[in-house]
Amino acid sequence: MRKTLLALAASLVVAIGAFAAEITLKQLPSKAQNFIHEYFAKDQIRKIHSHHHRHGNTYNVLFTDGSKVNFDAKGQWTKIKLRNDSIPVEIIPEYITTYVWDNYPEEVIMCIESEGEGHEVELSDGTELTFNPKTGIVKID
User: Fold this and answer.
1) pLDDT in tens, 72-122
2) 20-61, pLDDT tens digit by residue?
3) Per-domain boundaries in the chain
4) Do residues 89 and 104 touch, judged by C-beta distance below 8 A?
5) Buried b vs exposed e over 13-38: b needs ≥16 C-beta within 10 Å?
6) 20-140 in CATH: which number?
7) Which of 38, 44, 63, 132 is the most buried (most CB within 10 A)?
8) How far is CA 92 from each of CA 18, 61, 66, 70, 130, rounded to the nearest angstrom?
């Protein structure tokens, strides 16, 4: 039984590893490369992973300070999580920045995730906000 579980665990590790690969910046979609050059040129990249899925690849860019940016197969960002800085305002939809500035003037956005048509953001105080572009704020945690 123990040998069977160990063999199964080893097979799972191999199978998972087959779907993820470390790549270089030049192997990212051009839209993702341009995004990194525009907004993170001063940051040092630690590693980039490509993950294969049925619907295409996704990409995770990890920086030496612990920040990360995730991209979809087309090179559109899906999540940005920064450790030592706020998300550049040009990246964030205007209705979100307006709401945060009006209701949380002392806080900055440290993480933003695109979820279908909406977005989830995390503020510097840990507050999580979920937005829908049609109705605005949906949820506050």
Assistant:
1) 999 999 999 999 888 999 999 999 999 999 999 999 999 999 988 899 999
2) 899 999 999 999 999 999 999 999 999 999 999 887 899 999
3) 20-140
4) no
5) eeeeeeeeeeeeeeebbeebbebbee
6) 3.40.1420.30
7) 63
8) 34, 19, 21, 15, 13
